[in-house]
Design goal:
- This protein is mostly helical and about 200 residues long.
- The chain has six helices and five strands, in the order E-H-H-E-H-H-E-E-E-H-H.
- The chain has helices at about 15-20, 20-35, 40-45, 50-60, 100-135, 150-175; strands spanning about 10, 35-40, 65-70, 80-85, 90.
- A three-stranded antiparallel β-sheet has the order 2-4-3. It has a two-stranded parallel sheet with strand order 1-5.
- Helix 1 (about 15-20) crosses helix 5 (about 100-135), helix 2 crosses helix 4 (about 50-60) and helix 3 packs across helix 4 (about 50-60).
- The N and C termini lie far apart (about 45 Å).
- It comes from Streptomyces tropicalis.
- Keywords: DNA-binding, Transcription, Transcription regulation.
Length: about 200
């Protein structure tokens, strides 16, 4: 298991705004997947200029979301970056005490959702290229439950524990060199109340 903070809880408006930028969120997600990368590597992934990517990486670092990593190559001019934690969490309760904070939280949540939806749309568009094994394994479901707020919180905790277990299993396999057949997998879960 990583020695990094498991899941950094963002509670201040400045850090939320720093992350809630379309390019910065893509760069942060790219670093979570790669675990460490240079601005050049990330610029190639997001199809942006290296200078622009470097600027946004420095902004993420200013707020402690990412940090410099040990160099992974002999080129001393390359600056490597890595996430400062294994992920972030953003809770409504930390941003509801002022209209500006609530509005920023809503805008950030919408951005994160749109980027997640775009990831799924890309998978759907490329589905034929993934082959039958991945298509059989990929999941999209909707379940309607009747829960209390406390039960929903308990379910969320159970799901997080399950995801952590699989994350640790994948990380251990990667560290052991067992990468054959492994791909990055996004799991998006939304749980919210609604009325018909």
């Amino acid at each position: 298991m990583s020695s990094k903070e498991r899941n950094r809880r963002i509670t201040d408006l400045g850090t939320l705004k720093a992350l809630a930028h379309p390019l910065r969120m893509r760069l942060y997600r790219g670093l979570l997947v790669a675990r460490a990368a240079t601005a050049s590597q990330l610029a190639e992934q997001v199809d942006e200029a290296v200078s622009l990517v470097s600027y946004h990486l420095r902004r993420l670092a200013e707020f402690g979301l990412i940090e410099e990593a040990e160099p992974r190559s002999a080129d001393s001019r390359e600056r490597w970056w890595e996430p400062a934690s294994d992920g972030v969490s953003i809770r409504d309760e930390d941003f509801r005490d002022a209209p500006e904070k609530a509005a920023a939280h809503t805008a950030a949540s919408r951005l994160f959702f749109e980027q997640r939806a775009e990831m799924y749309r890309s998978f759907l568009d490329q589905r034929a290229h993934w082959g039958p094994e991945w298509n059989r394994s990929a999941e999209s479901m909707e379940t309607m439950l009747r829960l209390t707020p406390e039960e929903l919180l308990d379910m969320d905790r159970e799901m997080q524990a399950l995801f952590r277990r699989w994350e640790e299993r994948g990380r251990a396999a990667d560290e052991a060199g067992d990468t054959d057949g492994r791909e990055n997998v996004a799991v998006h879960a939304y749980a919210f109340p609604f009325r018909l």
